[in-house]
Write a structure and sequence with these properties.
The protein is built from 3 helices and 49 strands. The protein is mainly beta. A 13-stranded mixed sheet has the order 21-22-23-24-25-26-27-28-31-32-33-34-35, with no helix packed on it. An 8-stranded mixed sheet has the order 7-8-9-10-11-12-13-14, with no helix packed on it. A 7-stranded antiparallel sheet has the order 36-37-38-39-40-41-42, with no helix packed on it. The termini are far apart. 9% of the residues are buried.
Length: 618
């Protein structure tokens, strides 16, 4: 049977032997915690080992081989050194927490350090711990990334590099960021800033030849590009508060063009500068318009040698010219230093606006570059008066002069025998001054030379049918006995509300009639005296008017001659025609007289009724 060696032991969890329990070199085991203890030569209890889920080592661990940790290792420092080849170490720095440092060769060269600083992850390069290092990379607590800088300014990624404009030769670029692609990584897109000029730049170039410049495409397959705006509404949307929004310039040469290419054509519209002139046209197709150094514009031509005006010249014939207080629109004419001249051999015309006046001129045909002799055709002066064939006389709104005896104005339709409208040259009362007619020359309305207006008729006689308005304001309406005139139509109720019949009667809604009766519009007011005796003298009759048929219902009324004997104040006149006047009565006044008499009758009735009642009661 084998010999058993039993050490001192305890089954109490966390129990640790004391110095009095052991002698130097003696072993003790805590079988509950699986821990092994001994007493060293100094009389202190030393724990030799354990079999826990975690390993805690105070001090340093140095391994010539590898260290295999399958659980959690807690230590103040860890160094893995492969001598002159390189290594790494993990240290706990007092001010910046745990550092992971890698190096090549010895621990004092080619150092890279990564550590966590106030919840920010930092990568730096430089000398060993304790000396100056250069920060290269940082992820802050918000997840923002800084490359070459410790300040991200709230941005997701900030990259800091050299400042300056892009290099124009060699292979060393002055920039911050490079995007490279292709087999040799030669085609690159470099980005940078120039702090001295407050600018940022993008350059497509070659990594092996920075003086070779490549094409730069923005949204090659679609999408809008915005400059100075966050919401571009077109393929290229440029917005700026400065006066100059976009500037295009050519690096060499005096002429420069901006093309607007249509992929379906071989020529392209362009805007170009030629010295101090601006030109518009089609590239490969010729110039269409030019603005010269004096500001003159030629469409389809180079402007002629104008003098004293800013000009728009169209081809060889049309022009628009202006100076400080004068504007011209002309055809086949230009103003030279020696006066107006023909552009080509032909007739010329001109419109002038000057000091509130508008003047039209014409000229007979003349030779190119010869002097033009203008003849005035029409004028509107500064007061708005119009003269045709003459300068308008003072106070005359429209002054038309004609040296012949024909009509002054004549507007006709396609049928030359039918007038639409014309102004005649008549000078007697029976002649027309102004007339409108239908296509068959039937009069619609006419203004006679004496000022009378005729509508639907050609004579001032009462007959035939039609209307006459005379200068004095008299209005005459001639209608047949079956018609009526002076119509008033209510569009809301779609009904006539007033008209005058041919027999002189008025048809209207009499209940809507009103007469002015406001005390503020009256004077000399007094009570109406008794009308009892007057009304007793009126003899009411039934009768026909002379124009009535005997079969018509008789009218009710009075005879003016009879009423005049007692009440001349209600008698008036009625003009039957231009030569005949008859007596009439003022019926409205007679109604008020009748009401007064009725009031008197009522008073008498009430007095009699009171007397009868008194007698009956006695």
């Amino acid at each position: 049977m084998a010999t058993k060696i039993v050490t001192k032991n305890s089954s109490t969890a966390s129990a640790v032997p004391t110095a009095s329990d052991l002698v130097q070199g003696e072993l003790a085991v805590n079988v509950a915690d699986k821990r092994l203890f001994t007493e060293d030569n100094g009389g202190s209890i030393v724990e030799l080992g354990t079999n826990p889920s975690t390993l805690t080592v105070t001090g340093e661990i140095t391994a010539n081989g590898g260290i295999d940790v399958t659980g959690t290792a807690t230590m103040d420092g860890l160094v893995v050194d492969t001598s002159s080849v390189g290594g790494f170490k993990v240290t706990n720095e007092a001010t910046s927490g745990v550092h992971l440092t890698t190096y090549q060769g010895t621990t004092n060269s080619n150092v890279r350090t990564a550590y966590v600083d106030s919840q920010e992850f930092v990568v730096s390069t430089g000398a060993p711990t304790g000396t100056t290092v250069t920060e290269r990379f940082r992820i802050d607590s918000s997840g923002n990334v800084g490359i070459g800088t410790s300040s991200t300014s709230g941005l997701k990624t900030v990259i800091k590099g050299e400042t300056g404009y892009p290099a124009t030769s060699g292979t060393t670029q002055t920039g911050v960021l490079r995007l490279a692609g292709g087999t040799g990584l030669y085609n690159v897109l470099d980005m940078g800033v120039n702090e001295s000029t407050d600018t940022a730049w993008i350059q497509a170039t070659r990594a092996n030849s920075l003086g070779t410049y490549d094409k730069l495409l923005l949204n090659p397959y679609g999408g809008n590009v915005g400059i100075g705006t966050s919401s571009p509404s077109s393929a290229l949307h440029v917005s700026a508060s400065a006066e100059v929004v976009t500037r295009l310039s050519r690096s060499a040469g005096s002429n420069s063009l901006v093309l607007f290419q249509d992929p379906t054509t071989t020529t392209a519209p362009y805007i170009g500068s030629y010295g101090n002139a601006m030109a518009f046209g089609r590239y490969g197709g010729g110039e269409s318009m030019r603005i010269d150094s004096s500001g003159n514009v030629g469409i389809g031509c180079t402007p002629d040698a104008w003098s004293g005006y800013s000009v728009l010249q169209i081809g060889t014939a049309g022009c628009l010219a202006a100076s400080e207080d004068t504007t011209f629109v002309g055809a086949n004419a230009y103003s030279s230093a020696s006066g107006w001249k023909y552009v080509t051999t032909d007739e010329a015309s001109l419109y002038q606006q000057h000091s509130g006046k508008h003047i039209w001129y014409g000229a007979a045909s003349g030779s190119a570059d010869s002097a033009v002799s203008w003849q005035e055709r029409m004028r509107i002066d500064s007061s708005g008066n119009v003269g045709i064939g003459t300068t308008p006389a003072t106070g005359v709104r429209l002054d038309i002069r004609n040296n012949s005896t024909t009509n002054i104005a004549d507007l006709r339709n396609a049928n030359s025998s039918g007038f639409g409208l014309y102004v005649a040259a008549g000078d007697t009362s029976s002649q027309y001054a102004f007339r409108a007619a239908d296509y068959q020359n039937n009069a619609l309305f006419s203004v006679m030379s004496d000022g009378n207006l005729l509508v639907g008729k050609t004579t001032t006689a009462i007959d035939p049918e039609g209307a006459i308005i005379k200068q004095a304001g008299d209005y005459y309406s001639t209608i047949t006995s079956s018609n009526n005139t002076y119509h008033v139509y209510d569009t809301t109720n779609n009904a006539y509300t007033f008209y005058v019949n041919a027999n002189g009667g008025i048809s209207n809604y009499s209940g809507n009639n009103v007469n002015l009766s406001d005390e503020r519009e009256k004077k000399n007011i007094e009570l109406l005296e008794s009308q009892w005796d007057s009304l007793k003298q009126w003899s009411l009759k039934k009768f026909h008017y002379n124009a009535d048929d005997d079969s018509d219902n008789k009218k009710l009324g009075v005879i003016a001659q009879e009423v005049e004997a007692h009440n001349p104040e209600v008698i008036g006149e009625f003009q039957v025609d231009d030569e005949t006047t008859r007596m009439a009565v003022k019926e409205q006044q007679m109604v008020w007289m009748a009401i007064k008499a009725l009031q008197e009758a009522q008073t008498r009735i009430e007095t009699l009724e009171a007397r009868v009642t008194k007698l009956e009661n006695n």
